[in-house]
């Protein structure tokens, strides 16, 4: 029998409390019983998003939250700025294009982070015509973290709203939605929040609500005005994913008990261990100047088949990491350390990596990666 370990940047492993909560009988949602649950979820999400704004729970994957962030605030023909530093930045452009919104794309080399000054200059050149700036907290395709705090300073006094895709970063690295002037923050359930896929989240601040008044994009299921009206009476416009909301409360209870501060410190430690391990194996980080504590992208060494490496780890040994996407296919692998991951998951993942690298003929000192990770954990 093969034991499986999930070390991908979504979905991430589920804590036992979450698994248990998912096995309970279903209840009806238009009941005081579910209202209590929803109230707890709304409050819990405010804690995780570090916001006073409403955070809406959508029954969709994270991309449903991204689509909501486009169609509720904008109109066809509007001009927006999109930061494209990888696959998920590109998704903003694709959604905007689908609704006839014009994108001024700031292209950033994969593996690098956007310079907030470039956003400032682009906004300035637009002379007040840009309605939104779309960014990504952690560009999961490259493992790069974006300096949202600095971008918030740049966007706050402009006419544009700042929209952050925090799908993979939320609950793993710091994002102070209110303090950093994020008008709209989007997330999803299956990454830092330790849940199965199926929920999208979106927080909306006053500047974005103001823009919503003039929005003419077509919308129905993701109409946030309907969601806001329902929210006011602790309700949802459609049938919510009741079981997942119950599980969400379990996950957030765990997070509150631990505290965000400790959770971020913990992710930092795991990321340090992974970075130290791959370096000790003679491997190179893909984003040495801008890595995140969410997922680590590593260059596949010369002579090694990157796709086969990932496939062998998964199919032969049950350790699932992620390969590269699009232009990085076969060239990098991505080792995630977000959500319900502990130091021995990291050790297991690194030791499996060593084993398969050795089988593929890559030369290194066996055990060096594990030892380097252990040293970080001992500190
Ligand atoms: C996973 C991810 C998404 C996509 O979310 P889905 O839940 O697959 O729709 C979008 N953005 C980022 C940064 C992600 O990591």
Task: Give an overview in words.
This protein is α/β, with parallel strands linked by helices and 379 residues long. Helices cover 42% and strands 16% of the residues. It has a seven-stranded mixed sheet, with helices on both faces. Strand 3, helix 4 (87-98) and strand 4 form a beta-alpha-beta unit. The two termini are 35 Å apart. The relative contact order is 0.17. The mean pLDDT is 98. The chain binds pyridoxal-5'-phosphate. Pyridoxal-5'-phosphate binds at residues 9-10, 61-63, 88, 136, 138, 140, 165, 167-168, 188, 197.
What strand order characterises the main sheet? 2-10-9-8-5-3-4
The CATH class name of the largest domain reads Alpha Beta
Separate helix tally: 13
* CATH fold title of the largest domain: Aspartate Aminotransferase, domain 2
Total count of strands = 14
Average pLDDT over all residues: 98
The portion of residues forming beta strands comes to 15-25%
**For the terminal residues, how far apart are their CA atoms?**
35 Å
Helix content: 40-55%
Helices and strands, in order, run as EHHEHEHEHEEEHEEEHHHHEHEEEHH
List the helices and strands and how they pair.
Blueprint: E1 5-6, H1 16-22, H2 32-49, E2 54-59, H3 62-71, E3 79-84, H4 87-98, E4 102-107, H5 116-125, E5 130-136, E6 138-139, E7 144-145, H6 148-155, E8 161-165, E9 184-188, E10 199-204, H7 206-212, H8 224-232, H9 242-258, H10 260-280, E11 295-299, H11 306-317, E12 319-320, E13 322-323, E14 332-336, H12 343-359, H13 368-378
Parallel strand pairs: 1-12, 3-4, 3-5, 5-8, 8-9
Antiparallel strand pairs: 2-10, 6-7, 9-10, 11-14, 13-14
Helix pairs in contact: 1-9, 2-9, 5-6, 10-13, 11-12, 12-13
Bound molecules: pyridoxal-5'-phosphate (PLP).
């Amino acid at each position: 029998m093969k034991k499986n370990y999930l070390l991908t940047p979504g979905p991430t492993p589920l804590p036992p409390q979450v698994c248990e909560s998912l096995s309970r009988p279903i209840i009806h949602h238009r009941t005081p019983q579910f209202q209590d649950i929803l109230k707890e979820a709304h409050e819990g999400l405010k804690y995780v998003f570090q916001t006073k704004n409403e955070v809406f729970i959508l029954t969709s994957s994270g991309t449903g939250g991204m689509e909501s962030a486009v169609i509720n605030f904008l109109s066809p023909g509007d001009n927006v700025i999109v930061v494209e530093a990888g696959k998920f930045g590109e998704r903003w452009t694709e959604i905007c294009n689908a609704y006839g919104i014009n994108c001024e794309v700031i292209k950033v080399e994969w593996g690098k982070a956007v310079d907030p000054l470039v956003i400032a200059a682009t906004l300035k050149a637009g002379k007040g015509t840009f309605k939104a700036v779309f960014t990504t907290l952690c560009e999961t395709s490259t493992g790069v973290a974006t300096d949202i705090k600095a971008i918030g300073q740049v966007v706050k006094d402009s006419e544009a709203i700042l929209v952050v895709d925090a799908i993979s970063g939320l609950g793993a690295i710091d994002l102070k939605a209110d303090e950093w002037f994020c008008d709209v923050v989007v997330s999803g359930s299956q990454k830092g929040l330790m849940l199965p896929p199926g929920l999208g989240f979106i927080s909306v601040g006053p500047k974005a609500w103001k823009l919503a008044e003039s929005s003419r994009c077509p919308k129905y299921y993701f109409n946030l005005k309907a969601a806001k009206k329902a929210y006011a009476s602790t309700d949802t416009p459609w049938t919510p994913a009741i079981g997942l909301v119950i599980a969400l409360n379990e996950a957030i209870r765990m997070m509150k008990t631990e505290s965000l501060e400790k959770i971020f410190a913990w992710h930092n430690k795991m990321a340090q261990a992974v970075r130290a391990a791959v370096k000790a194996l003679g491997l190179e980080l893909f984003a040495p100047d801008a890595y995140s504590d969410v997922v680590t992208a590593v260059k596949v060494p010369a002579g090694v088949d990157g796709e086969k490496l990932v496939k062998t780890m998964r199919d032969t040994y049950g350790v699932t990491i992620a390969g590269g996407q699009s232009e990085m296919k076969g060239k990098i692998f991505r080792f995630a350390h977000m959500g319900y991951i502990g130091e021995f998951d990291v050790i297991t993942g690194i030791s499996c990596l060593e084993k398969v690298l050795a089988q593929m003929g890559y030369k290194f000192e066996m055990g060096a990666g594990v030892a380097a990770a252990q040293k970080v954990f001992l500190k």
